[in-house]
Design goal:
The complex is a heterotrimer of chains A (340), B (280) and C (292).
Chain A: H1 10-13, H2 20-39, H3 42-67, H4 75-91, H5 96-115, H6 123-144, E1 150-151, E2 158-159, E3 162-163, H7 167-190, H8 192-202, H9 204-209, H10 214-239, E4 242-243, H11 250-263, H12 270-293, H13 296-317, H14 322-335
Helix pairs in contact in A: 3-7, 3-10, 3-11, 3-12, 4-5, 4-6, 4-10, 5-10, 7-8, 8-10, 11-12, 11-13, 12-13
Chain B: H1 2-9, H2 16-19, E1 30-41, E2 44-55, E3 59-63, H3 70-78, E4 85-90, E5 93-94, H4 100-106, E6 108-110, H5 123-128, H6 139-143, H7 147-167, H8 182-194, E7 200-204, H9 212-229, E8 232-236, H10 240-246, E9 249-254, E10 257-262, H11 264-268, H12 271-279
Parallel strand pairs in B: 3-8, 3-9, 6-7, 7-8
Antiparallel strand pairs in B: 1-2, 1-4, 4-5, 9-10
Helix pairs in contact in B: 7-8
Chain C: H1 4-35, H2 42-85, H3 93-115, E1 128-131, E2 134-137, H4 138-160, H5 162-172, H6 174-179, H7 184-210, H8 216-230, H9 237-255, H10 263-278
Antiparallel strand pairs in C: 1-2
Classes of the chains: A mainly alpha (340), B alpha/beta (280), C mainly alpha (292).
The structure holds adenosine-5'-diphosphate and magnesium ion.
């Protein structure tokens, strides 16, 4: 803790930015995010858009899994729900910036309904219920979209004459929604609701007996996760010219879960950030390298091996995720060369 | 307009004096009644047709050998175990079918025999979640950190500081409870109950595993709350010395039944009690 | 109206598949009882067994294929216990869920490297017989025999032997069982190995019935529904749970298919949610009452 900074009110203690270094870091981060399109070419800017979309989704799942300790295996399906709702509304002539929040709300509602039977039960029942939900939603997608392609009409993607579906407008729209998502998620995490979620995660039995409505907290944690998934789905529809459900299958859900568990469960922003960077973006980059080196079926199998191995490995050896590894590394550097 | 609406939502909650209003004096009036309670686990009858009448403002101790059914009885009162028979009445209201968290909201708080803290959270957060039933912000207000969320936070922190003072937890505020000694954990546990400003506190072996000094500190804190706020205490405890020192009345349980009841002096000399303790 | 021979055939298929579901569900329940969590790696084990049997039996004959796939499954159970379940004892159940999900992927990865995502039948000659309205293949009969024997053996082992009662004691109260001097740790390992073997038998029966293919694990995931219907801590109940699931699937595909194409393959998940809604601890399961 830097010396010389004193808190005068309780509110300041849990403020998002507490020290000058926080402000400086946030300002630099924002500057970097704003300048990114200038710093890198169009390919990497699109990669960054995809990164941000999955960051929004992962932040949501991190609330469900990391804060409330509930394993959800339906996150990709809920993202798909958001994407399809956006597609449907866009088709009906609704502007995409209206459709995206609605997508979030509908995914949240669907999440809530499907997992409803399991909130009264132990956490692993939610894992089962959400798995069932994942397959049910996938099944419905296959019914309504047998060709795996629903176009998103371009007309819905305009804001005051600017086309948002491409280039800089796409990037900045996504960035803005991502920033709002992150800030709201952080606020939820530090609120009494977020603390109650952690309590449910740490000891759900006692939580109920000391006054926490565990049923409600679990339901809301899952629903909030669904909201962010839907939002990510809406953004995905903005980013793509058309959607199909192959991206919203169980594999997508497991990848989401992997991003949370590997990056840092409970560390809503930085844990999710690292998780998406390593698992999603990292794999995209690795895949294109691998494609030239090894046969395709080995590459596909390798993805299972690496992701699965990392999920299990982090749970066993570093349940706090990559962020904890980085923190230790930072400590090590700080104390170097006296680091023993 | 919006600010006014928010103020309205919080009307009264700001006023700490109301939250910590002094209770009516001690009386014979029952505040809590557990009537004809029976708890079974398969073949085991953990509690066998027990009736306990807790009077307003008293400090009632429940003693008895291990396995007597004391914890089970507390669990029934807090709603965690469903009894096969019997009912629980709090201030004239039958709360038998009420979920545990509702009973806390009504004014029955508790502590635990084995640590039931939230081990990954700080002392401060462990205590503050005790105020969950009195939260006055909704999800949206929390997400955008509106005035209502900020105000609630300040109010909650003040309430927490109050019990932190009482139980002298200042230096541990930001420590993760998993790293604290068992004695300190017991204190945090009590703090989480007291921040709820309960009318009745159920305590399950609060002294177990504490050093003599820690026991004295804890007993002093309990007596302070008991006397300044008129809070009613129901305390399951093994340490007969502590119990005879601070309890107004003692109930003795053995094998799921009440075998004696009365003032500390008469109870500890009761031959059945001595038999249960020495022979059991 | 549905034709009688279609109905009879469907009921028979439901019965055969139901037994397989039961055997696979038994694997989930064995693990739940000792580790109080759900083994999400189990479905991948089914897949692994299928491909090992396929690859080995092509080169060394079907007998070698069967034996080696059983051995691999037992070994996998052992490895899962040692590497995941044991280090996570005392952690919340979701930790083991996450870890076994990781293992699910690892095993899938290994399987696909071995099996190259192909789909093929085990090299076993199958012939069809007609029994009145019913057409039966030898593969059906063999897989019924395998699952029937597996279920009977495991249920007897569990209910009638000393090892079985020791495992039951561990399942009910591990600390208490340790107090009585039971080798809790070894009994847990044994349970994981047994679950592996159960999965192997189920996987072999499934491979006979549905060919070895990259989606075998999907059947195993559906077996969750059978597990929940029985109650996660129930052993004998899985037979009923599995059969119910098998029959529901067949009936759904006959009755609902015209309106909802592909419903047969997915009804299990609706079924699962329904059970959670009306009878969350299953037909034979009990709610565990935690202590505080
Ligand atoms: N959740 C439970 N499941 C099974 N048996 C229990 C449970 N809770 C308590 N028991 C049994 O009930 C009896 C009374 O236990 P308890 O109320 O903890 O006694 P005490 O607190 O007086 O030591 C004991 O025999 C105990 O084993
Ligand atoms: Mg006790």
């Amino acid at each position: 803790m830097p010396a010389g900074v004193f808190k005068e009110t309780y509110g300041e203690e849990i403020a998002i930015f507490r020290y000058p270094i926080h402000y400086a870091g946030a300002a630099l981060g924002l500057l970097f995010a704003l300048m990114l399109p200038i710093l890198v070419g169009p390919y990497y800017m699109l990669l960054a858009v995809s990164f941000l979309i999955f960051l929004v989704g992962t932040v949501g799942l991190n609330i469900t899994v990391g804060l409330a300790g509930l394993i959800s295996l339906a996150h990709a399906a809920l993202m798909g729900m958001g994407a399809y709702v956006t597609a449907f509304l866009a088709e009906k002539g609704v502007n995409i910036l209206v459709a995206i929040p609605v997508a979030g709300l509908s995914a949240a509602a669907l999440a809530f309904i499907l997992a409803l039977p399991s909130f009264r039960l132990k956490g692993y029942y939610l894992a089962m219920a959400s798995l069932a939900a994942q397959f049910i939603i996938e099944y419905i997608f296959a019914l309504i979209d047998p060709d795996q392609y629903v176009p998103i009409p371009d007309e819905a993607k305009y804001l005051g004459g600017i086309y948002l579906g491409r280039g800089l407008p796409l990037y900045y729209t996504t960035l803005a929604i991502t920033i709002v998502s992150i800030l709201t998620a952080v606020n939820l995490g530090r609120s009494i609701l977020g603390r109650a979620m952690k309590a449910v995660r740490d000891n759900d039995v006692a939580a109920e007996v000391v006054g926490i409505n565990v049923y409600y907290v679990k339901a809301i944690a899952f629903t909030i996760g669904g909201f962010y998934a839907g939002l990510a789905g809406g953004l995905y529809a903005l980013y793509s010219s058309g959607i199909g459900w192959e991206g919203f299958t169980l594999e997508g859900s497991i990848e989401y879960l992997g991003m949370v568990l590997i990056g840092g469960p409970g560390r809503i922003v930085w844990g999710s950030f690292l998780g998406v960077l390593l698992v999603r973006t990292g794999w995209t980059l690795l895949e294109s390298t691998l494609a030239d080196l090894i046969v395709s079926y080995v590459a596909a199998a390798l993805k299972y091996l690496i992701l699965g191995g990392m999920i299990a490995g982090f749970i066993i050896f570093e349940p706090e995720g990559l962020i904890a590894v980085l923190r230790r590394f930072k400590e090590y550097l700080r104390l170097w060369p006296y680091s023993y | 307009m919006q600010a006014a609406a928010l103020e309205w939502m919080f009307d009264g909650v700001w006023d700490r004096s109301e939250h910590y209003a002094k209770r009516p004096e001690r009386s014979e009036r029952p505040i809590l009644l557990a009537e004809n309670i029976t708890v079974k686990f398969g073949e085991i009858v953990a509690v066998d047709n027990v009736t306990v009448n807790v009077r307003q403002g008293e400090l009632l101790a429940i003693i008895g050998p291990n396995g007597a059914g004391k914890t089970s009885l507390l669990n029934v009162i807090s709603g965690f175990y469903k009894p096969v028979a019997g009912r629980v009445v709090f201030k004239g209201q039958d709360i038998s079918r009420m979920p545990p968290h509702k009973r806390v909201e009504l004014g029955i708080s508790r502590t635990f025999q084995h640590s039931q803290l939230f081990l990954g959270m700080t002392v401060l957060d462990n205590i503050i979640v005790g105020l969950f039933p009195w939260r006055r912000t909704n999800t949206l207000a929390a997400a955008f950190w509106l005035r209502s969320a900020r105000k609630w936070e300040e109010w909650a922190r003040e309430s927490v500081e109050h019990v932190i003072d009482l139980l002298e937890l200042h230096e541990y505020r930001y420590r993760v409870v998993g790293s604290l000694s068992p004695g300190l954990q017991k204190r945090v546990d009590l703090a989480r109950a007291l921040v709820q400003n309960p009318e009745v506190v159920l305590m399950d072996e609060p002294m177990a595993g504490l050093t003599r000094e820690e026991k004295e500190d804890l007993a002093r804190a309990i007596i302070e709350v008991h006397e300044t706020q008129g809070t009613t205490f129901v305390m399951v405890e093994h340490d007969l010395e502590v119990v005879t020192d601070i309890a107004d009345r003692i109930i003795v349980m053995d094998s799921g039944r009440v075998i004696a009841e009365g003032e500390p002096e008469e109870v500890v000399h009761n031959p059945r009690v001595i038999h249960a303790y020495v022979g059991g | 109206m549905v034709e009688a021979n279609i109905l009879v055939g469907a009921l028979f298929q439901g019965f055969v598949l139901g037994l397989i579901y039961a055997l696979i569900a038994l694997g989930f329940n064995i693990i739940y009882r000792v580790s109080k969590s759900i083994n999400f790696a189990h479905p991948a084990l089914i897949l692994l067994v299928g491909y090992v049997a396929l690859v080995v039996s092509r080169q060394n004959g079907i007998a070698a294929g069967l034996i080696i796939s059983l051995a691999v499954a037992a070994l996998a159970g052992l490895v899962l216990e040692k590497s995941l379940a044991k280090p996570l004892i005392g952690k919340p159940p979701v930790a083991l869920i996450g870890a076994t999900l990781g293992a699910f992927y690892v095993i899938r990865g290994v399987t696909f490297i071995v099996g190259r995502f192909e789909a093929a039948a085990l090299p076993l000659q199958s012939t069809y017989y007609s029994l009145g309205l019913l057409k039966v293949s030898t593969n059906d009969l063999v897989s019924m025999a395998v699952t029937g024997a597996g279920l009977l053996g495991l249920i007897l082992l569990h209910n009638k032997t000393r090892i079985g009662s020791a495992i039951r004691a561990v399942a009910e109260d591990a600390e208490g069982a340790a107090g009585y001097g039971l080798p809790v740790s070894r009994l847990m390992t044994l349970s994981w190995i047994l679950a592996g073997l159960t999965g192997a038998l189920g996987g072999l029966a499934l491979s006979l019935k549905a060919q070895v293919n990259p989606y075998l694990d999907f059947y195993a995931i559906k077996a969750f529904a059978a597990s929940i219907l029985a109650g996660l801590d129930s052993i004998g109940g899985v037979v009923l749970g599995g059969l119910a699931l098998g029959l529901v699937e067949q009936l759904a595909s006959i009755v609902l298919e015209p309106y909802l194409p592909g419903i047969g393959g997915h009804i299990a998940f609706f079924f699962l949610l329904l059970i959670l809604l009306v009878k969350p601890y299953g037909l034979f399961g009990t709610e565990r009452i935690e202590r505080i």
